[in-house]
Design a protein that fits this description.
There is one protein chain. This protein has 172 residues and is mainly beta. The protein folds into 2 domains: 108 residues, no CATH class; 37 residues, no CATH class. Helix content is 8%, strand content 27%. It has 2 helices and 12 strands, in the order βββαββββββαβββ. Strand 11 and strand 12 form a beta hairpin.
Amino acid sequence: MINLKPFCGDDDPRDYLNAPFSEGTFTYATNGHILIRVARRDDVPEVDDKSSMKGKCEKLFADNPFVAAVPIPEVPPLVEEDCDCCNGEGTHERKCGKSSDYPCAECNATGSVMVEPDESKWPRIEVGNAGFAPRYLRLLLTLPNVQLSPNAMEPAPFTFDGGSGLIMPMRE
């Protein structure tokens, strides 16, 4: 069974993005950039009637059919770098008069963070006729036998063993 949580938002102010939801015969997970659906799971609650996602997912899939698979190129791995927030120290000096340090929340007090190897602020990888954020392609590649069908600037459908999804491309 595929873990849906990595495809959800992480503390997003739009609550409906932070957990999977069910509607009709499917269960969905989305972070606003990727939307996946699998056969309905009994342990995932029905979409809230007040959610802006209510009734929208199936229309998105109908409007963006899978046409032909394009190979997903190799996505470079993240690289380790000193944390910019704490300058690689892992802690910050308290500014309120206390003498002890406090742990850096950005790097979880490790002093290092994982970053894209690309120097660009918005790294992008071309796949067919569209470009995608490397972090979302890495997430797609965790799915079994994923197949992607880029669609220029429209949501790109993909399939995988056990489900299907859509991923948003990036502008140049």
